[in-house]
Amino acid sequence: MVALPYLWLLLFFVVPFIIVLKISFSDVALAIPPYKPLLEWVGKHSLAVKLNFDNYAFLFTDSLYLHAFANSIKVAFLSTLMCLIIGYPMAYGIARAKPAVRNVLLLLVILPFWTSLLLRVYAWIGLLKANGVINNVLLSLGLIHEPLTMLYTPFAMYVGIVYSYLPFLILPLYANLEKMDWQLLEAAEDLGCRPWQAFYKITLPLSRNGILAGSMLVFIPAVGEFVIPALLGGPNALMIGRVLWDEFFANRAWPVASAVAILLLLLLVPFMMWYQSVQARESAGAR
Amino acid sequence: MCSVRRTAILALVCLWALSGCGGGKPAADSASGASAGPKVLNLYIWSDYLAPNTLPDFEKQTGIKVHVAYFDTNETLETKLLAGSSGFDVVVPTASYFERQIKAGAYQALDRNKLPNFKNMDPQLMAKVALHDPDNAHGIIYMWGTNGIGYNEKMVKAVMPDAPLDSWRLVFDPAVAAKVAKCGISLLDSPAEMMRAVYSYLGKNPNSQSADDLAQAEAALLKIRPYIRNFSSSEYIEALANGDLCISVGYNGDVMQARDRAREANKGIDIKYVVPKEGSILWLDVLAIPKDAPNPGSAHAFINYMMTPQVIADVSNFKRYANANLASQPLVLPAVKDDPGIYPPPEQRQSLAVQLADSPEQTRAITRVWQKFKTGQ
Questions:
Q1: Distance CA B152, CA B327 (A)
Q2: Nearest residue, CB atoms, B103 vs list A30, A168, A237
Q3: Are residues B273 and B325 in the same domain?
Q4: Which end of chain B is more exposed for a tag (fewer CB within 10 A), N or C?
């Protein structure tokens, strides 16, 4: 049974990773598949390995790629922050609700997953566009006289990302807050803490693991997000997902696209390692 | 922490299930088709690109069962072909992509003996495809059309009464674009095709591979960047029809669709289509057989069937695209045949060029200019 998660990891992470890594060291070719093999028989008994590092070197010759990485991290960071600001009170509210109400609230958080992500993002187009629901309501109320430009702006992109990823932050945070001993808060108040002081000194530090887990679940996929910026964001939203798409589909450069993907992964590894080390320290401290 | 992991795994399973839905089917079909059972044909075609009776009639006539799957960009098709073993028997690429895919060895040569209806095809248009595919060895034309500008005359005239409605200046001349930008301009998000449009505007060869020309095109594009509301390759249909945009560079068929939708909605929106006088490009969609097609016999039978005058005329009449079948022209409805947006008049056909495939270096250079144009980086 212990082997099962590792088998999963091997099949669905390590093997695809090695395939992508392999392609990233190869050359473009007009063939099926569209890259040259790494291993080649030269003569009868010698196998030559040809690793091409140009694809990686190329990414540093053009500022486009670094800009795209930096911008993706910025977007992911701000989205995570906004998810946290909105999601924390919601998770807190659910954790403190009565058990019967709590289940209903949890169901409401999970309910959007029953519709495809794509459909939900399309629904935002209908809400935000110049001729859309929000503009029409505001116009008919006389609050605005010209339709607001919301679609195809950074605003729309953040709305889409925060909306889509919010449940990934709420659920782990709720799981964490739910286990908290609320008597600690009463004790703090008995000892003279104001409610906000008790929150700051007791609740927030105790929920740190939940905050971290939720933030990671939002931040990591948001860095590589492609669909939401493509549908809602403006054309000047330079994200690494879009650059990857351009390399893969427009330039047909599978090797360069693979190099971008590997760099993205390398970029995310430090965050995951930091998270792991915090987790390990926590569980060591708890013992 | 258990619930975190559970959520993450759930998300992974969802993703995995989603991606599984897309790709698996044709390969499974082809496995059954290769055996001695009933004959099958795996068709991979653009969505919304057949008449309702096209496939049922073929099945009735030949007893071949058709499995059809749809794509909506050439890139999707190309990626499946280049990954190998796509399992499809007939695919419908656009000619500029087709040219490169032939060079990659993605297609098998057609057996003319199995295609007696080839005699019906328009030699002039087939000669245009031969620029991509010498001797028309690998494909025949399914439908063809033009790239041009779709516009809402009322909205454009309201912001600029003397707008040059028959010229690329409408979008590429900064003085004009600055004025018409108020009602909304969109461009196709397709670097290679848009660069042809800029070259036509600048009076260059649309298939120029020169770095100098590309630099001039880049300079011209950067001047109009503030006036472009959006880049889209299909969303503009609805936006034009709704009046969210007043000018879209697009494909004739899509603009016709926007026009029809606007008429159905009956909100007084009238969409027109023009091929700019400086010239534009011609797109040609081709029927071809992948090299590793499991049922090449069915594939030939299908391509021959698609060259039957009545069959292809039905598609033209229903989908409102021009076909390249001379023998079918008497069967095409006047409303379609005489619409200059569908069948460009002879004098206009002179100004239409085919989009030849760019070298990989030129493709990368064009993509880079386009990224800079869009994002400023």
A1: 35
A2: A30
A3: no
A4: N
What domain range is B368 assigned to?
146-282+356-375
Q: Which backbone phi and psi does B210 adopt, to 5 degrees?
A: -85, 135
Chain-chain contact of B377 with A238 (C-beta, under 8 angstroms): yes
Please state, in angstroms and rounded to a whole number, the distance separating the CA atoms of residues B333 and B328: 10
Distance from CA of B346 to the nearest CA of A (A): 33
User: Are A33 and B11 a contacting pair at CB < 8 A?
Assistant: no
- Do B360 and B233 share a domain, yes or no? yes
State whether B187 and B110 are in the same domain: no
| Band (B6; pLDDT cuts 50, 70, 90) | very low
Tell me, yes or no, if A61 comes closer than 8 A to chain B by beta carbon.
no
Q: Which residues of B103-129 are buried (b: 16+ CB within 10 A; e: fewer)?
A: ebebbbebeeeebebbebbbeebbebb
Q: Across the interface, do A12 and B191 touch by the CB < 8 Å criterion? A: no
Integer Cα distance of B31 and B28 in angstroms: 5
CA distance, residue A182 to nearest chain B CA (Å): 19
Distance, CA of B318 to CA of B57 (rounded, Å): 15
Calculate ∠ Cα B2-A183-A202, nearest 5°: 70
Smallest CA–CA separation between B372 and chain A, in Å?
9
pLDDT digits (tens, 9 = 90+) for B32-60: 444 456 799 999 999 889 999 999 999 99
Assess whether B130 and B66 both reside in one domain: yes
The model's pTM: 0.84
Predicted ipTM beyond 0.90: no
| B265 and B367 both lie in a single domain | yes
The answer to whether A113 faces chain B, any CB pair under 8 Å, is: yes
Q: Tell me the CATH number for domain A63-286.
A: 1.10.3720.10
Same domain, B84 and B57: yes
Q: Which residues contact A281 (CB under 8 A, 6 or more apart)?
A: none
CB contact (8 A) between residue B367 and residue A63: no
* Interchain proximity B83–A32, CB inside 8 Å: yes
Q: List the structure tokens of A204.
A: 């927030």
**CATH number of the domain encompassing residue B72:** 3.40.190.10
